[in-house]
Amino acid sequence: MRNLSRGMLALLLAAGLGGVGGTAHAAPVRAADDDVLAKLKAIPGMTVEEKPSTLSGYRWFWLNYRQPVDHRHPERGWFEQRVLLEHKSADLPMVLYTSGYNTPETMFLSEPTGLVGGNQISVEYRFFTPSRPEPAVWKKDTIWQAATDEHRLITALKAIYHGKWISTGASKGGMTATYHKRFYPSDVDGTVAYVAPNDVNNKDDSAYDRFFKNVGTDPKCRTNLESLQRELLKRRPEILARMSADAEKAGYTWKIIKTVDRAFENSVMDFEWAFWQYHLQSECKDIPATTASTDAIYSYFDTISGALTYTDQGLEPYIPYYYQAGTQLGWPSPQFKHLHPLLRYESTYQPRTYVPSDIPMRFDPSAMKDIDHWVRTRATHMMFIYGQNDPWGAEPFRVGPGSRDSAVYVAPGMNHSGRLLAKLPDAQRARATADLLRWAGVSPAQARTLSVPQVAEDPMLAQRPPL
């Protein structure tokens, strides 16, 4: 639920985490795949457009699949769900990448796709535009409805792709992959969920307070971040003036959150969280001193928290997420003791604040309890991977005595990334990779011969609200 910053994508690109390199290539077509376009078009409710590929060896198809707004009552309306397919060969494994948000309009391969050398579909989550029913019946923006979207899609595509299926996703995408596995455990042969929060008890968020008290190995960094948060609040008039000027220049407004002052405080409360989510401890040296100029402090604040995150224009694309956080997923509520008594609007730090008031919301605490219980007692062929310094990992999924062939891994010193398997210690990386290949039906010998183009993280991950 946390903020996004305008500079975050640039920072991730600089760190080698965002974007997809390479130039366009004409993808070779195997004889057995000559009719894949015709097969896709033959699926009832599917429209298909082939686009020029930018990954060697892959064809790129933009699909729109007709889904019921309510899977229990399909007669009540339909919408078009966008799915981007990177096709290599119908006899290779298929990786279902669940974004949890929009799907990027660019070719990229998730880490599991690169490791198994297979095909990939990137599925846009319901209610994110353009995959939004009209009118938007918000009470159908639920985890079960979304899981059933994926179930119908998988069922349709298995008529073409007969190999093993792996599901994956990062952040809300990792959550989405987990929920789908809970409701339809036989749809895929394995799941790799990255940095997926598990807010099983929304009323107890003490784990986040413990996290911020101990994150990293540099106490001075933690102290400097908290000091700069307080300094921002002390310079409230100067910061508000700069935020207002930036919003006016961009033509942005503050109607949903009511005032620029509330938006300012929400972004300040985001600040420490956003640093650890998207940055590494090595970047602590870049934190300005509290004696720095207001311009320097504001620039850093904008980079980390995003000064215009809580404008109407910043919130609007992510209303489907905020709605779900406030009705089923839950949300973190850290205690900001170090900011008292400088805060005025601490109670606004919740999803209800970010959703237009004319959209009804009611929280259901049973949804995440059900998911958590299932993972601990029934999960099979599931892998959860977290970054050690990522706040969202403070409340992780855990496998229990009833889980089978499942594991949880933590990448030392890492943040909120969807490419963490490669960052695990050697022995853990070898074990996790072997499990993934086994689930996908790829032998170690086959894996060594794979020819996979340069891959990168979902380039939109840095543009989303951090959950």
UniProtKB/TrEMBL annotation:
InterPro entries: AB_hydrolase_fold, Peptidase_S37
UniProt superkingdom: Bacteria
Molecular function GO terms recorded: peptidase activity
Signal peptide: 1-26
Protein name: S28 family serine protease
Keywords of the record: Hydrolase, Protease, Signal
GO biological processes: proteolysis
Gene3D superfamilies: alpha/beta hydrolase
